[in-house]
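This is your field. Please look over both lines of this record.
***
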Amino acid sequence: MISKKLLKDKEVKQKLSEDWVKARILLEMIGKPKDFLVQKLEEHILNAEKVDGVKIISYEIEEPEEKEQFFSTFAEVELLFKDQTRLIYFCFEFLPAHIEITDPEEFLFTAKDLTDILNDLIIKLHSWDKTVRVINEQNKILYNNQSVLIENMLYLSLRTGPKTIQQLERDIGLPSKSFWDVVDKMKKKGLIVEEGSKLALARRPSN
């Protein structure tokens, strides 16, 4: 576990007397290798210091745990924010898994403050929605290109004669679960037929 304190108690008290906001957040990260993951999470935490009106009091990074071939870890970070607006913007940018405001107990928002915050939130949501839609379209294109490639590989493999799924796996270099959807589509198109335990190219009628 990595544990560091960046601000002294008297510095924290001074900021709180100037109406700064104190909060505790959790940041999570998944990846590998283990040491690189810890390094990237610490870099992510320290980036908070670059944000105007944000101060890191302390942070603790837990030892990563291995889960399904990846490592996961989290950090508990205590911070100071010059005002509540900066706290909210910080959440937009750093996306903490959890946040707890420890000081003050109450906030006062003006109508303008809340309007600005909500408009920024709307802009962020539209940006994320656009990004998701672009990624979805890119995934569709990649999937279609992959399907065409696999269809060509199946066709070339079956040109030499009927083959079992195991033989096709060896020829194509992919497990059957990766190309079975393509096989099913080729069956429906009448390009592939089953011959016992094997698959074969459909025979075209002679003229």
In short: The chain has a mean pLDDT of 88. Strands lie at 2-5, 21-31, 54-61, 65-67, 70-81, 98-103, 192-195, 198-201.
